[in-house]
Specification:
Arc_rbn_hlx_hlx, mainly alpha, 84 residues
Length: 84
């Protein structure tokens, strides 16, 4: 995999924290920044996926689905009756 160099600007305090963490983790600053960016991008992708899932389920069940859910609950009660 090819690497690309880039320059970024950080507040001095953030840079110092990153420098200290890189030393503690025994990785280069470049590696630390790459790990942080990978984590950020993965979290962002997960948030987008969650938003899509929430959009898909935001509508209420239609009357047919409601009837099916009631029937499933009734059948479930009958199956577990006396089990607990």
């Amino acid at each position: 995999m090819a690497n690309v160099k880039t320059a970024i600007s950080l507040q001095k305090s953030l840079f110092e924290q990153a420098e200290a963490l890189a030393r503690k983790m025994k990785v280069s600053r470049s590696r630390l920044f790459a790990l942080a960016l990978q984590d950020f991008m993965q979290r962002h992708q997960h948030r987008q996926l969650l938003e899509k899932i929430n959009q898909a389920y935001q509508d209420a069940p239609d009357p047919t689905e409601q009837k099916r859910l009631r029937k499933m609950r009734r059948l479930h009660r009958e199956v577990v009756e006396g089990e607990w």
